[in-house]
Design goal:
Length: 371
């Protein structure tokens, strides 16, 4: 059989091709490439989608996190609570503004930040919490917001993997003082290149971020603060606007495919299936399972021409980049267990149900062989 990729971006984007070509032609004809009307229009639409007043397009998701922290005046000597189980970008953003990432363990069943452990990590230096809505599922936000308000600290969401998910009916990207997302091509709302955005209901913060992303300038050649060059360009904004119109539908496709996986893999071997917290929803950016036989299962699926990925094989506290923080193996056992046992199975909008069934059948045959 032909190999089954983990993610088929060509297929994901194929249905938009005619609209993409039309948008590109308009882009070329207009001759305006940066900070134009297409970006403004997309920002308005994305803010509306996230149920916020403002959205600011930036160059990528990491920049979005950094600009959120800068806009909230978090910097040298401050501490920011982050998940121990996350992609390293969350930690890097904290480091880039001179603050210290303080890891808190996730819940083992949802992989998201365990709000019951947050208070014990708060010190007089704590200025913010960054809940990461991992794998598509939003964190338990009522509890996190309640803790933040109790200690007068800021919440900044990292909702790069959860565009369209909600908690108790309230969208991801609308809970924090400001919130960062990524439009990396593989995201649920993915560009055809890098891109990111910040959402907020705070006018002052939105205006500050607009200046920071553009060299600290509101008026050309007049720089009020020391900013950066981090702008979502016009063509990516145009492509994203097209895909945003279909996001709820493609998220629903993901959910239906995930339901097939969950039905087919129930009670198979020692597999632990995704669990969704009460009041939370997931848009299944990833369909991730856990098993003690992870590496052997991945090799078996590879031999059967099925591509899988590990999200993420090394937790941030064990990365060489963060050896200066002095953490050792065993310091965050839940994050380490997740890193050692999780496997992400193929899933994308446009994937066929029989392709999901094929993956599930190979997983079953693997466990049949080892019993």
């Amino acid at each position: 059989m032909d190999s089954l990729p983990f993610l088929n971006l060509r297929q994901v984007n194929k249905s938009y091709e005619k609209e993409f070509y039309k948008a590109f032609d308009e882009f070329i004809q207009k001759g305006w490439y940066i900070l134009g009307d297409r970006l403004k229009h997309f920002e308005q639409l994305f803010a509306s989608y996230c149920d916020t007043k403002y959205a600011i397009g930036v160059a990528n998701g990491l920049d979005a996190l950094v600009l959120c922290l800068r806009a909230c005046e978090i910097g040298e000597g401050d501490e920011v609570i982050v998940p121990s189980n996350t992609y390293i970008a969350t930690w890097l953003a904290v480091s880039y503004v001179g603050a210290k990432p303080v890891p808190v363990e996730p819940k083992l069943d949802t992989y998201n930040l365990d709000y019951a452990l947050i208070e014990s990590a708060i010190t007089e230096k704590t200025k913010a919490i960054i809940p990461v809505h991992l794998y598509g599922q939003i964190c338990e936000m009522h509890e996190i917001i309640e803790i933040a308000e109790k200690y007068n600290i800021i919440v900044i969401e990292d909702n790069a993997q959860s565009q369209g998910a909600s908690f108790d009916g309230k969208k991801s990207g609308s809970w924090g003082v400001c919130n960062a997302t990524s439009f990396y091509p593989g995201k649920n709302l993915g560009a055809l290149g890098d891109g990111g955005a910040i959402t907020t209901n705070d006018l002052i913060i939105s205006e500050k971020i607009r200046k920071i992303r553009n060299y600290g300038s509101e008026k050309k050649y007049f720089n009020e603060i020391k900013g950066v060059n981090s702008r979502l360009d016009e063509i990516q904004a145009a492509f994203l606007e097209i895909k945003l119109r279909h996001l709820d539908y493609t998220n629903l496709e993901r959910i239906k495919l995930a339901e097939v996986y969950s039905k087919e893999l129930l009670n198979i071997g020692d597999i632990v299936l995704p669990r969704i917290a009460n009041k939370a929803t997931s848009v299944y950016h990833l369909y991730t399972v856990r098993t003690e036989y992870r590496d052997s299962l991945q090799n078996y699926l590879t031999d059967n021409k099925i591509e899988t990925l590990i999200h993420y094989p090394v937790p941030p506290h064990l990365q060489v980049a963060y050896c200066d923080l002095g953490y050792n193996r065993g310091d965050f056992p839940i994050a380490e267990e997740i890193a050692n046992t999780t496997l992400s199975l193929p899933l994308w909008p446009g994937m066929k149900f029989d392709e999901v069934a094929l993956v599930a059948s190979k997983v079953k045959s693997f466990f049949d062989k080892i019993v």
